[in-house]
Each structure stands twice: as C-alpha cells, then as structure tokens.
Specification:
Mean pLDDT: 90
Order of helices and strands: HHHHEEHH
Low-confidence stretches: 1-6
CATH superfamily of the largest domain: Winged helix-like DNA-binding domain superfamily/Winged helix DNA-binding domain
Structural class: mainly alpha
CATH topology of the largest domain: Arc Repressor Mutant, subunit A
Radius of gyration: 17 Å
CATH architecture of the largest domain: Orthogonal Bundle
CATH class of the largest domain: Mainly Alpha
Helix content: 55-70%
Shape: globular
Distance between the termini: 13 Å
Strand order of the largest sheet: 1-2
Strand content: 5-15%
Number of helices: 6
Largest sheet: 2 strands, antiparallel
Number of domains: 2
Length: about 130
C-alpha cells in the first residue's frame, strides 16, 4: 500500500524558478510518464481541482492541459476528464540531472538563508531517506 502512495503524482510549483507555471505542470507530467508514475489511461485532476490545489488561475492549468493534448501526451474526453495517452515520453539522464540540479540549488539556497549548513541539510536528507525506504 505504501508503494502505491509513493507513486502518486504531487504537483508543486516554484514561483522563483522563472519557468511559467503551465510549463512546470507539463514537465512534471512528462517526468511522471517517463518514470512510470503515470501510465496510459490514468486520469489527471480536473482543471478546476488542480488550480485550487496549486492556488493558481484555472486558465493556467487549462493551458498546460491544452498544450499536452496538442503534443499527444493526454487525451481529453468532454464531460469525463483528461487522461494520459499511450504516447511514450522519455526523459534522458542529462535532463533529469538538470532538473534535479535546479531543484537542489534552490532548496540549498533557501535552507542556507535560514542558517542551515550543507552538512545539516545532508544529514537531514539521509535521515528522511531512511524513513522512506
């Protein structure tokens, strides 16, 4: 049961990244498809519910969903919802490392502004990593 909970896609937006929110949503869906957290036929949250969860304008979510539909990543069925298509999405190791690097630098910078040392951050991450596994 815990494994299923880990697979679930949790959307998160970084307003300081400089990347528009709709592109962050698309990237997170693409990564989830590439690493099999999302598979063919799975339903995405409704535009309205995702907008409420992320505290953003529904038009932003709609833009992300529309662009993903144009790319063939999702299919929208009127009145039913938006579903992951059977289009294969791959994310190479370089792109994954680049994304992780951006997230990590932002996190370390923010933690550092609160006075945490790199050693404290590493120790904490190791501790929570053991809790997850």
């Amino acid at each position: 049961m815990a494994e299923l909970e880990l697979k679930k896609l949790e959307f998160s937006l970084d307003p300081k990244s400089g990347v528009p929110f709709y592109k962050q949503i698309i990237l997170q869906v693409e990564m989830a498809i590439a690493d099999k957290r999302l598979t063919n036929g799975e339903q995405l949250p409704t535009v309205r519910s995702l907008a409420v969860d992320l505290k953003i304008n529904p038009n932003t979510v709609a833009r992300a969903y529309n662009e993903m539909e144009i790319r063939g990543i999702v299919m929208t069925q009127q009145g039913t919802g938006t579903f992951i298509s059977d289009k294969k999405v791959e994310m190479d190791a370089v792109k994954r490392e680049q994304i992780l690097g951006e997230i990590s630098r932002s996190f370390i910078s923010k933690a550092g502004s609160y006075g945490f040392t790199l050693e404290e951050i590493i120790r904490y991450l190791q501790d929570i990593g053991q809790e997850v596994t």
